[in-house]
Specification:
This protein has seven helices and eleven strands. With about 280 residues, the protein is of the alpha+beta class. It has two domains: about 130 residues, N-terminal domain of MutM-like DNA repair proteins (Alpha-Beta Barrel), CATH 3.20.190.10; about 120 residues, Helicase, Ruva Protein, domain 3 (Orthogonal Bundle), CATH 1.10.8. Helix 1 packs parallel to helix 7 and helix 6 packs across helix 7.
Length: about 280
């Protein structure tokens, strides 16, 4: 699933353009093809086509894992979920097997939403905050200082790994960057959030920002058939490295399931809060 760095990279690409094609700002929609209706969370396909046709794109941005495309007087929100992908390409490009929605532009280009597993969704709305306000703060928000983050963390009894995946707590992290941040912060994923000291909470916030910025700098991670072009997968310290040596101490990386999600960590660098209580993780 594309996470904050991947979605940020996609937003930048759509703004700047790719392969000599211009970016989306300033382009006018000439036609819309809805090839799989359930991709539209709201409105229905008929209303979607009627409302969005002949409008001009103004801005593209990101909120959490959402792409936010301003098309006055509406906003198009896109969540790629597990396997969604966007292609900016000439209008003559043939359809791909899993193409779901296509926005055609008057300059003979198109934006194609492809989604193998059909989990991705689009919303066309004049009230984007009804959806986006459910998200927690952005990790890079200047208002999110160490004191506020400590208060946020200390108010939750959840284990750290599922807490970092909770988009209402903090927007944008997924499995990859949560594992990498916990490793850098030397915190075990089983650790209860409300047990962190102030120094540990501060260290975690710094680690989250560090791995996300590193991911953005490397255009995200390319780990499957969906998101392509990133390089961060070549710099993973723990994610998908189970059994391989820890880059810090050489201990084999462990893999467990927490909240139905694969979780990777170093048992030496990230000591378990359960050790000493009759448990060993």
């Amino acid at each position: 699933m594309p996470e904050l760095p991947e979605v940020e990279t996609i937003a930048r690409t759509l703004n700047q353009g790719v392969n000599e094609l211009p970016g989306l700002p300033g382009l006018t929609i000439s036609q819309v093809d809805v090839l799989w209706e359930k991709t539209l969370a709201d409105p229905n396909p008929e209303i979607f086509r009627k409302r969005i046709s002949h409008l001009t794109i103004k801005t593209i941005s990101r909120r959490g894992k959402f792409l936010v495309i301003e098309i006055p007087p509406y906003w198009l929100l896109i969540h790629l979920r597990m396997s969604g992908d966007l292609r900016l390409e000439p209008d003559t490009t043939p359809l791909h097997k899993h193409d779901r929605i296509i926005l055609h532009f008057t300059n003979n280009t198109k934006l194609t939403f492809n989604d193998t597993r059909k989990f991705g969704r689009m919303w066309l709305t004049n009230s984007p905050l009804k959806i986006l306000d459910q998200l927690g703060p952005e990790p890079f928000d200047k208002m999110l200082d160490k004191d506020i983050f400590y208060t946020m963390v200390h108010s939750r009894k959840t284990q750290l790994k599922p807490l970092l995946l909770d988009q209402t707590f903090l927007a944008g992290l997924g499995n990859i960057y949560a594992d990498e941040a916990l490793f850098i912060a030397r915190l075990h994923p089983f650790t209860r959030a409300n047990t962190l000291s102030f120094a540990q909470a501060e260290q975690l916030l710094v680690a989250i920002r560090t791995v996300l910025q590193d991911g953005i700098n490397k255009n995200g991670a390319s780990i499957d058939w969906v998101y392509r072009g990133g390089d961060f997968q070549n710099h993973f310290k723990v994610y998908q490295r189970n059994g391989k040596p820890c880059p810090n101490c050489g201990t084999p990386i462990s893999r467990v399931i927490i909240g139905q999600r694969s979780t990777h960590f170093c048992s030496m660098c990230q000591p378990s809060p359960l050790v000493g209580k009759g448990n060993h993780v």
